Amino acid sequence: MTAEPDGPEDRLRRFATIWSRAVFPVTATSLTRPEFEQRLVPLARRLSEALRARTFEAAEGQAVGAALIGAHCTEPEALSATLDCVDAYLVLYCGGDGAQDALRARSARLQHAMAAGFAKALRERTLAEQEAIARAALQAQGIVADALHATEARFRAVFEGAAIGISVADLDGNILQVNNALLRMFGGTEQSVRGRSVTDWTHPEDAPQVWRLYEELVRGDREHYHVEKAFYRPDGTVLWTNLTVSLLRGADGQPQYQLALMEDTTERRLLNLRLRYEATHDALTGLPNRTLFFERLDKALAAGEGMRFGLCYLDLDGFKTINDSLGHAAGDRLLVEVADRLQSCATAPGEMVARLGGDEFVALTTGPDTESEVDALADRIMNALITPVRIDGRELTVRGSIGIVEGPTGERGPAEVLRSADITMYRAKSAGGNRYELADAEADARAITRHGLTTALPAALDRGEFFIEYQPLVHLGDGSVHGAEALVRWLHPQHGVLGPDQFIPLAEHTGLIVPLGRWVLEQSVRQAKVWQERHSDAGPPVRINVNLSPCQLTHPGLVSDTVDILERVGLPPSSLCLEVTESALIGADDDLLKPLRRLAEMGVDIALDDFGTGYSNLANLRRLPVSILKLDRSFTQGMQQFPADPVDLKIVEGIVSLAHSLDLAVTVEGVETGAQAEQLRLLGCDTAQGWYYARPGPPDRLHELALVDATG
Ligand code: C2E
Ligand code: CA
Ligand code: CA
Question: What superkingdom heads the lineage (predicted)?
Fold first, then answer.
């Protein structure tokens, strides 16, 4: 019997099991291991979903990191075991069939977010603990003060039994009493502490207010203070504490002693430092990671007037090939070597190198002179990559593409700067790679909209963001509505309504034009059917014109899709006109014309759009399965003034008579005035379209226009 293949839920559970095995030994939880595993399942699920979500949510990773603290995984080992486990198994068990590179990059970002969430939650917990200690300290002060006035024996008991370090000194700073907890903290004997002066314990990291507060207290101007303070132990190591010092007054109210209560925070501080390091450095190369880089970039961009920044965004050329052919281990070693070399390129103060993920690195330079420095930095990086990298006895050539952004601080945010650098890097790549390019605002803007729109297109069709406007086609003879042209628009969630010129070329480029065109065709044919049904008594049936892109012409499904739509909707083929631009048919061979010919034979009209702009051979018209010429708008424009341009008149007259002699109807586009309409009518044009009659609009508007004509 063969085992059933695992479902996603099984794999998720398996991941949670591995995770709990790795972390359980280092938790302080009172749960059993299976119970603990149950506790991790929802966290694993969140990670799994965040891994595959359409956009990256740092908050998800942070929440999981914070939840670890809630589950008593407060030891640094718990975090590193968790991160190791996520790194090794999350993509494997929860990645589904997504692209590996993208999943790995996402997993890395999730790990950083988890470490950050973990550190933050731990910090918050520590703060809460400190509050509690401060409260205890105040209580203790009361107890000790009472004790001083009461019997020596009772005082001793409190003093010795306390879990926090306590010492009593006189107002000159001479230490009189210390308890065992405090001695343990200092790791010394009583002699090493007692008899010494409080003021001996200065430390280079003392905050300036530490000793000011001390002076105020011993003068009697302050009852207590609370600081974080470091001490040297007798062996030279450093002890970090939360220190609360209180003034003890005698029965007469005169200041008499000072009482210090201290809590050892050394371990916690080390843990925090380590967590901070882990959260801000890349585990593979040891370079600062994205988080730290963005912190620095933030700071650099907020620097004062006269300061500038320069950024080199490096992406290795062909790294994927190396990874795929030599394996990930070799790829990793290459990255480590590259990281080392980059590090040596940016050693001056104000410079840093970071790894953003995958084979993407950044070098940052700050200061007043980055205009010249950033070029030198890019040169150093390119030079550093020249020497081949030796891995497993092979010499690997490393090349990279760099996008450079340089400018004054205070103008742009980090996200914008990085995006510009990214776009510029791609420009360097598409220019052949192994080079650097400088950012240019205009090129950025073009690429941003182009790139953004292109990637958003497929989802836009699924989400129904496209809609169609209809522009009436009018009989020049009697002004009646003859039909309408369907013109597609995109209601973009951020950019508002976009015209076809802004996205049809992109849709053609990506191939989305085929499904989009099919959608437009189906909608328009349905609309025509609705018009015809509502309007069956008002003259000849309304027709619908639909534009076809060159890509659709060569798509094998064109004829069958069109026939299918017409049949399903029940619209006669003679009510449909497909518009093909003249330029798409220049030099067309029989293969290209065959589908159009088939459609024409079935009764679908084919119009030659934008006629007169493509310089096609007029004699060629005879060969094309075309029944309508749509004269380009530029001819109509020549007729705007009165009298019209005589040359335009002659040309249009010539085209019209040629068309009619070939049995082709002539439609004119872009009619904006009554004078133009009249002129074109006199020249013998058959139908017209333009703002003079109506702008493209919703389908009901055509209905109104048609009704007005039918009744008036
Ligand atoms: P086109 O086929 O030449 O469409 C006519 C264009 O002229 C439309 O621009 C229309 O809004 C505009 N227009 C109409 N009357 C006037 C006027 O009196 N004055 C002026 N100045 N302009 C006028 P639009 O909607 O921006 O469409 C641009 C082009 O996009 C269309 O040119 C067509 O080639 C293409 N297109 C539109 N919808 C589709 C579609 O569904 N599929 C494909 N493949 N292309 C489409
Ligand atoms: Ca058209
Ligand atoms: Ca046109």
Answer: Bacteria
pLDDT of residue 712: 35
Order of strands across the sheet that contains 360-367: 351-357, 360-367, 308-317, 399-408, 435-438
What is the torsional sign of CA 441, 445, 451, 455? positive
Amino acid at 390: R
* Residue 517 beta carbon below 6 angstroms from any ligand 1 atom: yes
Q: What architecture (CATH level 2) is domain 162-270?
A: 2-Layer Sandwich (3.30)
Q: Which atom of ligand 1 is nearest to the CA of 546?
A: 41
Closest alpha carbon to 44 in 85, 1, 79: 85
Domain range 513-711, CATH class: alpha beta
C-alpha closest to that of 428 among 440, 417, 411: 440
Which DSSP category does 575 fall into? Answer: G
Q: Whose CA is nearest to atom 5 of ligand 1?
A: 669
Closest to 238 (Cα-Cα) out of 269, 281, 279, 207: 269
Average pLDDT, stretch 342-362? Answer: 93
Angstrom distance (rounded) from CA 156 to CA 147: 8
Cα–Cα nearest to 629, from 684, 682, 678: 684
Q: Is 413 in the pocket of ligand 1 (CB under 6 A)?
A: no
> 671 C-alpha vs ligand 2 centroid, how far in Å?
14
Nearest alpha carbon, ligand 1 atom 42 = 547
HSE at residue 423, side-chain half, CA atoms within 13 A, is 21
Distance 534 CA to ligand 2 centre (A): 25
List the beta strands (DSSP E) in 118-254.
165-170, 175-178, 224-232, 238-249
Residues whose CB is less than 8 angstroms from the CB of residue 77 and which lie 6 or more positions away in sequence, other chains included: 26
Average confidence (pLDDT) over 396-409: 93
Checking if the pLDDT of 97 tops 80, the result is yes
Global pTM exceeds 0.85: no
Fold of 285-439: Alpha-Beta Plaits (3.30.70)
CB atoms within 10 A of CB 14: 16
Query: Taking Cα atoms as reference points, which of 220, 47, 45, 246 lies closest to residue 145?
Result: 246
Helix (H) or strand (E) holding 352: strand 351-357
Query: Which tens digits make up the pLDDT trace of 186-215?
Result: 887 777 777 788 888 889 889 889 999 999
pLDDT band at 156 (very low <50, low <70, confident <90, very high): low
